[in-house]
Amino acid sequence: MMTENGSDVVLRVEGLRTYFFVRRGVLRAVDGVSFHVRRGEAFGLVGESGCGKTMTSLSLMRLVPAPAGRIVGGRVVLGGRDLLQLSEREMQRVRGKEISIVLQDPMSSLNPAFTIGDQTAEPIRLHQRLRGGALWQKVIESLKLVRIPAAEKRLGDYPHQMSGGQRQRVVGAIGLSCQPTLLIADEPTTALDVTVQAQYLELLREAQNRLQLSMVFITHDFGVVARMCDRVAVMYAGRIVETAGTRDLFDNPCHPYTKALLACIPKVQAEEQELATIDGQPPDLVNPHGHCRFAPRCTERIERCLQEYPPEVAVSENHQVSCWRGGSAAC
Predict the structure, then answer these.
(1) 90-137 per-position pLDDT tens digit
(2) Do 145 and 204 form a contact (C-beta atoms < 8 A)?
(3) Model pTM?
(4) Domains of the chain: which residue ranges?
(5) Which CATH architecture has domain 9-98+180-330?
């Protein structure tokens, strides 16, 4: 397996910081996030609601809500270029062509006033300069890639004429239409029922293998992580607290927050069980304390956890954790 310095790394995020400047102060939504994604890899970003997953994905796309939100530091290197240094005009040529995003709510992603054919055609027309029959043939191919039935006959349909699962597939077709280097899937199955969710995940996996896509998969569902991701990073309060291969994370979780999340998963084999919970609430990210942000809720904390933030330590070559109990002692 290649290391993070290998030539197979297509995305490198270093010290990404995205803050919101609000009346109460500075809200540190993403506060020093670093990770990398290899070619053809599905990289998971997991954590409870409000931990900064979605804001990380919007930062990668340079779509942070303005004027309150701003990317204040870090690097996002894709294809040898730091996306944070590009002008907005240059970034428009990157979005959809080299990096795409699939959002969790298709009804907020799709414009109800335009047909799905027109909306799927827009990035193809913009980035691949196709027109006429060649354009619509490419649109049909994109819809067939995500198994839209009778794709040729659905080009003139509007979003409200499709089911929730079909709308989510259309959003996926738009994201995949120009065969980007990197696809960000931000909780794309949240609004789908279990059966449709399984089908959609299988479609994404097939598309990834066929197009050799790299993927950042954002979710709060460890079942989805186990099914889709090769490696996973666990986020808490705007920071990554643990990164590991998916199997290693399940077999050998090291950070107390990761252990707590995994403990909350219901056990299918158990006839009777009391569902586990994590006591307390996530911290206020407006001017947070400098100590470990999980420390007030942690059952394994030591005195130092309440005094300063722990550095990242290597448990193994591909497993890192930020915890003062550190390395093998944390596991």
Answers:
(1) 999 999 999 999 987 777 889 999 999 999 999 999 999 999 999 999
(2) no
(3) 0.90
(4) 9-98+180-330
(5) 3-Layer(aba) Sandwich (3.40)
